[in-house]
Amino acid sequence: MSMSESAAMVPEGRRALALWVVLAAQLMLQMDFLIVIVALPRIQNDLGFDALTLSWVPNAFGLAFGGLLLLGGRLGDMIGQVRAFRIGLIIFVTASLLGGLAQTPVALIIARVVQGVGAALAGPSVLALVMTMARDDAERAKVLSLFIAVSSIGASAGLILGGFLTEFLSWRWSLLINVPAGVVVIGMIGRLVTETQPKAAKLDLVGAITATGGSAALVYGFISAADGGWLAKGTIPSFVVAAALFVLFLRAERVHKAPLLDLRLLHNRSRLASLVVMALIVGMHFSVIFLLIQYIQQVLGWTPLFAGLAYLPLTATVFAIMHFMPGLMRQFPAKGLVAMGSFLVAVSFLGFALLRDDGCYFPGVLAPLLIHACGIALVLAPGTVAIMHGVPVEQAGAASGLLQMDQQIGGALGIAIVTSMYAIGAVPGQFSSGLPVAFFGAAVIALVAAIIAWSAVGLTPRPRAGGTDGIRAAP
Predict the structure, then answer these.
(1) In contact, 252 and 259? CB cutoff 8 Å
(2) What is the Rg, in whole angstroms, of the alpha carbon atoms belonging to the chain?
(3) CA distance 119 to 158
(4) pLDDT given at position 137
(5) What is residue 435's three-state secondary structure?
(6) Residues of 195-205 as b/e, b for ≥16 C-beta within 10 angstroms?
(7) What is the pLDDT of the chain when averaged over all its residues?
């Protein structure tokens, strides 16, 4: 029996409840990367972090999450998506509890790493389960739009919730809030969603180690450049190690009988271009959140709560546009939507580059923020569709892991790259001094993404001899 036939047999009310339970978990996982950002000053004061190690509070989670997503996707295919989802959430919730109770910097960073491990196991199963709940192509487009909407607002929603919890309770509740929410989801998911058919395979441990290590080394290289300069001791060696590990990863995937990443997924030119664009735009999006939240608190003097609420227009705009995305994707080609979205993101950065110490939220921050929201919404939905289109059912978990790894590592890299550009123009004691260089550089990167999108997204590759690609092209 096919997945669509199984979904058709499930009562409508139960299927809708199952969908929202799974999406609630996705929202929780997506929020966790930046939910602690607004609380970093108080975390630093309470636990005694120094300026350098403090950056690992968000990055430890992002790197573990992004670096292990391919492994998490494969495990979901092997043991069943529901089982992988529940195990991952149990790990995530347990680590959230330990992080919320942490008394030392080391304890908190370890907890954040373990959170990322749990998220990496549960995250790929979310999209795979959402897709199995659809009964036909029309429903698949709707549930995919919901998934994208929840994912896209997760980061900014995390800032709002994190600001509220930090101001009225404690920064610890930005982690502890996951415990009751996760327990409810864990208890309900097994009763609402039918398990997928497990697929026997061997674990690609070499691929998992090299992918995770390469990602961590690459991000650390940019963090080192931002902190100590491009000639700092840890900068160039980190890039060398990252390059070596990625080469080993590609070689391992070519020879392994059950690789974490089936390289044939990358033979599709449209999918590969969409992955590149997604990484660039998501990276620049996270850099906006990272820099603006500091500008709003340090320069404008807003409290953590109001700093989080400052992103509410972005969240609301993205969610509103996502409502119309299925219709837009039927009327306009993917490359046009993604290219236009990337261009709008570039325009928003030009607006952010004008921020100064005597600036104000309206219109200085709000106007480019709304343009940015429109651009992000136009990129995420058609970009995700182009990446996932034509992926065989048996590779759904792996492809979902690839997509989310692309976003998580792109986000971590985006923050590291833009921060390193910020350091070029920064003057001690003047936070706004580094913003022009950082945001002009981000605008250039977004324009590159727009060119790639217009040139390659949605193009159908030539058939490979003997059908070795094995995967249909995106329309």
Answers:
(1) yes
(2) 21
(3) 15
(4) 64
(5) helix
(6) ebeebeeeebe
(7) 80
The residue count of the chain comes to 475
- Of residues 310, 317, 363, 319, the one with CA closest to residue 344: 317
Instruction: Tell me the pLDDT tens digit for each residue of 224-280.
Output: 776 677 777 878 888 899 999 989 988 988 888 778 777 877 877 888 889 999 999
Which amino acid appears at position 10 of this protein?
V
Lowest mean pLDDT among 145-149, 296-300, 310-314: 145-149
CA-wise closest residue to 114 among 78, 51, 68 = 68
Which residue bears the tokens 């972005």? Answer: 314
- β-sheet bridge partners, residue 427: 430
Query: The whole model's pTM is what?
Result: 0.77
Instruction: Report the candidate in 158, 63, 155 with the shortest Cα–Cα distance to residue 405.
Output: 63
User: What is the C-alpha separation between 82 and 97, in angstroms, rounded?
Assistant: 23
User: Which tokens go with 307?
Assistant: 């700093």
CATH number for the domain whose boundaries are 1-201: 1.20.1250.20
**Residue 465: how many CB atoms within 10 A of its CB?**
7
Q: How far apart are CA 260 and CA 252, in angstroms?
A: 9
DSSP for 388-431, please give it.
Answer: HTT--GGGHHHHHHHHHHHHHHHHHHHHHHHHHHHHHH-BTTBG
Contact 311, 250 (CB under 8 A): no
pLDDT band at residue 7 under the 50/70/90 scheme: very low
Q: What 3-state DSSP class applies to 267?
A: coil
131 within 8 A of 18, measured Cβ to Cβ: no
Tokens of 324: 């119309």
Domain 1-201 and domain 264-475 have a common topology: yes
404: tokens are 């989310």
Torsion (CA) 332, 333, 335, 338 in degrees, nearest 10: 40
Reduce the DSSP state of residue 452 to 3 states and report it: helix
Distance of alpha carbon 3 from alpha carbon 7, whole angstroms? 6
Selection from 158, 149, 122 nearest residue 33 by Cα? 158
Residues 6+ positions from 268 with CB-CB distance below 8 Å: 390, 461, 469, 471, 473, 474
Topology annotation, domain 264-475: Growth Hormone; Chain: A; (1.20.1250)
Q: Going by C-beta distance under 8 Å and a sequence separation of 6 or more, which residues neighbour residue 421?
A: 434, 437, 438, 441, 442
- For the chain, what are the domain ranges? 1-201, 204-257, 264-475
d(CA 232, CA 46): 30
What is the DSSP track for 137-165? HHHHHHHHHHHHHHHHHHHHHHHHHHHHH
Q: Let me know: does 453 contact 339? Beta carbons within 8 Å.
A: yes
Q: Do 402 and 71 form a contact (C-beta atoms < 8 A)?
A: no
Indicate the SS3 state at residue 344.
helix
